[in-house]
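Below is a filled-in request sheet from our internal design queue. Each sheet records the structural input a requester submitted and the sequence that came back. We keep these sheets so that new team members can see what a complete request looks like end to end.

REQUESTER: design group, bay 2
PRIORITY: normal
MODE: inverse folding
CHAIN LENGTH: 319
BACKBONE (tokenized):
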């Protein structure tokens, strides 16, 4: 299969490209390198440096590569930036998606797998939210992901483009960008391994569903290969909650073990609490029964094991 991965130089996308190549697919990457890294694109994949907001450029890439399927991982993924600049969020996450879908359909693609977000669509979720839970996005980022799913349904009806929206929980793992407003796991590892303090927002009792990037990649592969005509939205998460205090304590423990083993010249700092961040949800969990039924997918990486392997990767990057 010929597969084009937007955002394929980034965190999730680059892992997905590796996995697709390993399975024997022909792969191309479309990425503007605004947050992705060119060196994360393997030699076996074609590379196109392109912004998904450039409709003509995206169409040119699609017509040149002629993908059978598209994995749309490229996104503006910061909730807080979407609040500060909702116009930019809409340009990337809505207009960019429309450009990709229209160009893919026009080039003869049959399927698109879309990186959506269960972490922002459902709002407060003390119990794991199923896909039937009404969408209740609280930020422009969440709104743009919800709008993206509506556009996918339009393209399915209008062009027959099979579409699957994978609603990710909080994804973590190697290659996550620790700069800007990245995920808490990447930020904590980078700061602590460099001897810098890491602040926990407020009381730290913010519960999230953390899913390892390798499990997310496996869900994408299964979605790409699944024979699911029409449109489906499918959660990708563990259904298990961990609050930030627990997460940070585990991260620091792994950092201490690595620092002792590697004889670091810096001391791993204690964890500190800072002010609460306005608008943070207290709890957000997603159910994964539909993924098991439709894709045969269940998470395989337990959190502590995933944090341990992630710690080793960030320690190597530190060198």
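RETURNED SEQUENCE:
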């Amino acid at each position: 299969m010929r597969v084009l991965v937007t955002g394929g130089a980034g965190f999730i996308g680059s892992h997905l490209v590796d996995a697709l190549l390993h399975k024997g697919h022909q792969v191309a990457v479309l990425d503007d390198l605004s947050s992705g890294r060119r060196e994360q694109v393997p030699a076996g994949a074609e590379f196109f440096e392109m912004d998904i907001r450039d409709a003509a450029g995206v169409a040119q890439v699609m017509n040149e590569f002629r993908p059978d399927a598209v994995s749309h991982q490229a996104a503006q993924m910061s909730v807080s930036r979407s609040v500060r600049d909702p116009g930019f969020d809409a340009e990337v996450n809505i207009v960019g998606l429309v450009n990709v879908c229209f160009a893919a359909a026009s080039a003869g693609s049959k399927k698109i797998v879309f990186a959506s977000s269960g972490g922002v669509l459902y709002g407060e979720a003390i119990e794991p939210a199923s896909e039937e839970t009404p969408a209740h996005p609280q930020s422009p980022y969440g709104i743009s992901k919800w709008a993206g799913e509506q556009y996918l349904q339009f393209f399915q009806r209008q062009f027959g483009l099979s579409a699957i929206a994978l609603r990710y929980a909080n994804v973590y793992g190697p290659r996550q960008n620790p700069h800007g407003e990245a995920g808490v796991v990447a930020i904590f590892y980078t700061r602590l391994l460099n001897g810098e303090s890491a602040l926990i927002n407020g009381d730290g009792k913010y519960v999230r569903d953390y899913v390892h990037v390798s499990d997310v990649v496996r869900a994408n592969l299964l979605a790409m290969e699944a024979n699911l005509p029409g449109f489906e939205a499918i959660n990708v998460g563990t259904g298990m909650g961990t609050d930030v205090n627990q997460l940070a304590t585990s991260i620091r423990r792994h950092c201490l073990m690595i620092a002792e083993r590697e004889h670091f010249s810096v001391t791993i700092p204690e964890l500190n609490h800072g002010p609460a961040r306005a608008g943070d949800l207290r709890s957000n969990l997603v159910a994964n029964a539909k993924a098991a039924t439709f894709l045969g997918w269940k998470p395989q990486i337990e959190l502590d094991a995933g944090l341990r392997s992630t710690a080793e990767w960030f320690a190597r990057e530190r060198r």
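SHEET NOTES:
- The longest strand covers residues 111-117.
- The longest helix spans residues 86-106.
FILED BY: M.R.
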